[in-house]
Amino acid sequence: MSSASTLIGVPAVDRRMAPVPKGSSVVFVNDPGVDATPFLYQAAREHVARGGPVVFVGLDRPPNAVAMRLRAFGLDARAPKLVIVDGYSSGLGLDFGARHVIPDPYDPASLAMEIERLSTLYPNAFLAVDSLSTLVDRAADPERAARDLPRIVAAFRRFPVSATVVTAWPYEGGTAPFTSAFDGVVQVSGLQGRRATTGHAFRVERAGWRANGSDEAVAFVVREPEGVLEYIPKILVTGPFHAGKSTFVNAVSDTSISVNRLDTTVALDHGTVTMDGFTTEVFGTPGQARFDPLLGMLAGQAMGVVLVVESSRHYSLKRARAMLEESGTQHLPIVVAANRQDPSNALSPEEIARELALGDDVPVVPIDVSDPIACRALLRRLFRNVRGVVT
Asked: CB-hemisphere CA count at 13 Å for 268?
């Protein structure tokens, strides 16, 4: 990455927006009821972790509440590189003893002037402003507030990178008057099921330094202290009897559970995995043919497949291919885990690839499925071809 570019600090977003030119400002536009501030908390933590200063302006809550939320996401408010600016208390006649205070948090010009001043004190900082909507909603004249926003955004651009949040309340004219001045716009919304919100997603609507717009809605979850994690609902781990599926699920997962009898899986293995800004659920299937009627059900909503085979059991490869077809997952992204490469009669990965005939784009990886590091490396290969999208 060049010295003229930087990151937001949220891996799931940076994968779609980085590198961000220095001086860029990004706004997260969230649906009412969907909290977008975790994007800011995580970004602040990551910038401090990389050794950069952070200026965090709290318009929506007092500085002690800002500090508590930052702490929940792993950033100690006492960190020497962190500056919390009080843009809340003076409007209520309160004083929390903050080093920097917005004199009149009801006046957009007051915010702009203070940010301009802060940019001279902390020129290399990441700037986060927790809610521009609060500023707009406080203003006696929202139209004037909208007119003042270009000056505020110009002040934001004095920092290497900045980010803020606007809630998509039903303003007259929508949110466009409040977002058009920003270099990047990320929509944050709820995923609607038939009767209720079933999750959350973000979409990069605009990034002025890249091709505008994106049709990709990226499902995410928020976990403390990790922050915003790209969510892949399900990875299926399947393969023949005694290939090593349960061992793989247990090795790769942060937490896991198996339903088995006499050391044989009779229902499923389930685990959760969090790494590299992703989180996913992994489900291992039974390998015996009598459980095949369950395969389609267990494969529902799967977005990728780890096919585990035992390299020395040549006869089981036909069964492995049949299990993909039975579960209806043969067209999903697949990585083959070629377990137990040590026996003298073990097929090589190239021979296994020919026997399975799954296509040149399906990697066959030699692996010991009891090795957590190797299992996670294999899962990373699958993640490259899987997108956490729920439609």
From this structure: 18
